[in-house]
Amino acid sequence: MHDPDCLFCKIIAGQIPSSKVYEDEDMLVFKDIHPAAPVHLLMVPKLHIASMAQVGAEQAPLLGRMLAKAPQLALDNGCNPYPQGGFRLMVNTGEEGGQEVHHLHIHLLGGPRPWKKG
Ligand code: 5GP
Ligand code: ZN
Predict the structure, then answer these.
(1) Comparing C-alpha atoms, which of 19, 77, 9 is closest to residue 44?
(2) Proximal ligand: closest to the CA of 97
(3) First-to-final CA distance of the chain
(4) Which residues line ligand 1 (CB under 6 A)?
(5) Ligand 2 ion: residues within 5 Å (CB)
(6) What is the reported pLDDT for 118?
(7) Does residue 109 belong to any structural domain of this protein?
(8) What pLDDT digit, counting tens, does each position of 13-39 carry?
(9) Which residues are catalytic (predicted)?
(10) Can you give the residue range of the structural domain that contains 51?
(11) Is residue 49 in a domain?
(12) Number of structural domains in the chain
């Protein structure tokens, strides 16, 4: 399912360029255009799901596979190893949750501090 007006659906379809770091049948992972930390990736399901507010049991396997990919993505893209290093996963949801792009995405932030946010 794709939304022709959705920015991340357009990136997934290759209509808008992105700095892709990983892709499989479930997800596309690319660099955030305005990084808030030395490593700032966006993990985006290929399926158009507007936000975490629409997620239920049906999406649990997909989200599980996405979360399980985070440790490898972090290390492969410059995050330092746990525990001195590590990373932060963040899912902004809805206006009050700070969500700007309404296609579900997991922010993966890491690298040496200080960061711009948090
Ligand atoms: P949100 O605020 O919805 O959680 O996060 C949206 C993120 O998408 C922001 O961090 C923003 O910098 C990033 N972003 C917005 N437009 C683009 C774009 O065209 N390309 C890329 N790579 N990132 C984008
Ligand atoms: Zn979309």
Answers:
(1) 9
(2) 1
(3) 34
(4) 7, 18, 30-34, 42, 92, 98-101
(5) 3, 6, 8-9, 48, 103
(6) 63
(7) no
(8) 999 999 999 999 999 999 999 999 999
(9) 105 (tele-amp-histidine intermediate)
(10) 7-103
(11) yes
(12) 1
pLDDT at residue 112, as a whole number: 97
The encoded tokens of residue 94 equal: 């809805």
Tokens for 35, please give them.
């990084």
Which tokens go with 4? 């022709």
CA distance 116 to 35: 8
Q: Which is nearest to 19 in space by CA: 6, 3, 34, 4?
A: 34
Query: Is residue 112, in this structure, part of any structural domain at all?
Result: no
* Parts of the chain with a pLDDT under 50: none
pLDDT at residue 2 in the model: 81
Residue pair 80/113 in contact (Cβ under 8 Å)? The answer is no
Domain with 30 in it: what CATH number?
3.30.428.10
